[in-house]
Amino acid sequence: MIDEGYIKYKIKWDKKQVIHFKEIEGLNKARKVIYSQNWLGYCAKQKVGYGNISCRRVLGQNQFIISGTQTGNVKELNETEYSLVLTCKINENAVHCVGLTKASSEALTHSIIYQHKEKCNAVIHIHEKQLWEYLSDRVETTPPNISYGTVEMAKAIEYILQNNDTASGVIVMLGHEDGILAYGENLDQVISILEKHESERILKKK
């Protein structure tokens, strides 16, 4: 079951266009890869999109561009389907974003990674059941009783980032079925991390 798609944070949304097409070219290139793998998409049964992608807008700052809520089923996004997250206040469960669409339901989760990983400039959240199961005892995991898009999830990820110096760049969300987070210095690195683990999973299966 896809537990995804619905915004749980308090939102301040400035509905105006601020994102330019050149800013999303790299995001769309990476998104095309994960879309082709069915790592993001749309669950028709539950009528929700799943998976999201983001990158810092300016290196060294915590503002980031993220795919909009309920866009998982769109093959290629344009500048109106991304949102610029200006601030996230974790303890208040509050997100301030600007754009012609609201930020993904996982905006808080992406934000906490950017806040604690200065060299991280890209985050990808995918859904893949077999990879999720394979990684669940191989990388860092959040507790199984914590749901997506919550303050608790953001704090669980914060704890991992603060207490594990050997973080792999991948976090399995045990309470968010099939949900996997990957992060790195750039989008290409994040894609490589995911593809490496998927290749290992396939080889292990043989």
Radius of gyration: 15 Å
From N to C, what is the helix and strand string? EHEEEEEEHEHEHEEH
Structural class of the secondary structure composition?
alpha+beta
Distance between the termini: 27 Å
Proper CATH architecture: 3-Layer(aba) Sandwich
Subunit arrangement of the protein? single chain
What profile does the largest beta sheet have?
Answer: 9 strands, mixed
User: Beta-sheet strand percentage?
Assistant: 25-35%
Give start-end ranges of low-pLDDT stretches: 1-5
CATH class: Alpha Beta
Overall structural domain count: 1
Write the CATH homologous superfamily.
Answer: Class II aldolase/adducin N-terminal domain
The counted number of beta strands is: 11
Under CATH, the topology can be stated as L-fuculose-1-phosphate Aldolase
Overall pLDDT confidence: 90
Strands of the largest sheet, in order across it?
1-7-6-5-4-8-11-10-9
Which helices and strands, and how do they pair?
Layout: E1 10-14, H1 25-36, E2 41-43, E3 48-50, E4 52-56, E5 64-67, E6 82-89, E7 94-98, H2 107-116, E8 122-127, H3 129-135, E9 140-142, H4 151-163, E10 170-173, E11 179-184, H5 187-205
Description:
- With 206 residues, the protein is of the alpha+beta class.
- It has one domain (10-205): Class II aldolase/adducin N-terminal domain (L-fuculose-1-phosphate Aldolase).
- The chain has helices spanning 25-36, 107-116, 129-135, 151-163, 187-205; strands at 10-14, 41-43, 48-50, 52-56, 64-67, 82-89, 94-98, 122-127, 140-142, 170-173, 179-184.
- The chain is globular, with a radius of gyration of 15 Å.
- The chain starts with 9 loop residues before the first strand and ends with a helix.
